Amino acid sequence: SLNCVEWSLLPPATKEMVVLAGKLKGRFQGDPSFEYDYTEINAEDAERLLEDGKEPIIKEETRLVATIEQIDSAVGIVPRGAFVKTPLGSVHENRNFEGLSLMEAKKLSSYFHFTEPVNLKNKTLLEKADLDPSVDFLDSLEHDIPQGSWTVQLEKGGTVVVLRSLLWLGLTFYHVPVTKQYGYVYFGTGEKNLDLPFML
């Protein structure tokens, strides 16, 4: 939206959009039609695109779509048990989910990335033996690399658990223990904190 009254949907992100947007540095301009200069992307990538017959034009709208996709896939999270996997493989919202206990809500292992699992496939049979396949089918935050890329805090006298990402500064996840209330919001610059490994 340019006027905060009329809103339109962004197009879905493609792999090419994510790759091109990942090459850009610096903050957003605030104008969806702004075009980034060719010098702002790697000369090798620009040459490859020209060979393919495509002009390497990257608009701010494309960069925004790609950045949202990156943030959702990297730090979009849900509490353990909020979604269940059926024996046929489909994933549904768990209508019986009543929230995590306060003790469980303070642990990183109680939260999962809401994307296709990567680390789960690499676990041994002994590690998978203690997991419930209907609930533990996503990657846990406790195994994120680098270690320490999440902070867990209690707010409002211990009635709200807040997780903040140090990789995507500005992402805040909240969960009210023993309720179905949870969610996340991102208020940041749209830049990944690449200095994180050196800060920990």
Q: What keyword list fits this structure?
A:
200 residues, alpha+beta, 6 helices, 10 strands, 23% helix, globular, cytoskeleton
Question: Helical proportion?
Answer: 10-25%
Separation, N- and C-terminal Cα atoms:
37 Å
Mean pLDDT: 83
What's the gyration radius in Å? 20 Å
Total strands: 10
| β-sheet strand percentage | 15-25%
Query: N-to-C SSE series?
Result: HEHEHEEEHEHEEEEH
Number of separate structural domains: 2
Broad structural category: alpha+beta
Q: Please give the largest β-sheet.
A: 4 strands, antiparallel
**Strand order in the sheet with the most strands:** 7-8-9-10
Global outline: globular
GO cellular component, one term: kinocilium
Keywords: Cell projection, Cilium, Cilium biogenesis/degradation, Cytoplasm, Cytoskeleton, Flagellum
Main location: other
Organism: Cuculus canorus (Common cuckoo)
Write up this protein.
With 200 residues, the protein is an alpha+beta fold. It folds into two domains: 15-74, no CATH class; 76-198, no CATH class. Helix content is 23%, strand content 19%. It has six helices and ten strands. The strands form four sheets. The chain has a four-stranded antiparallel β-sheet with strand order 7-8-9-10, with no helix packed on it. 18% of the residues are buried.
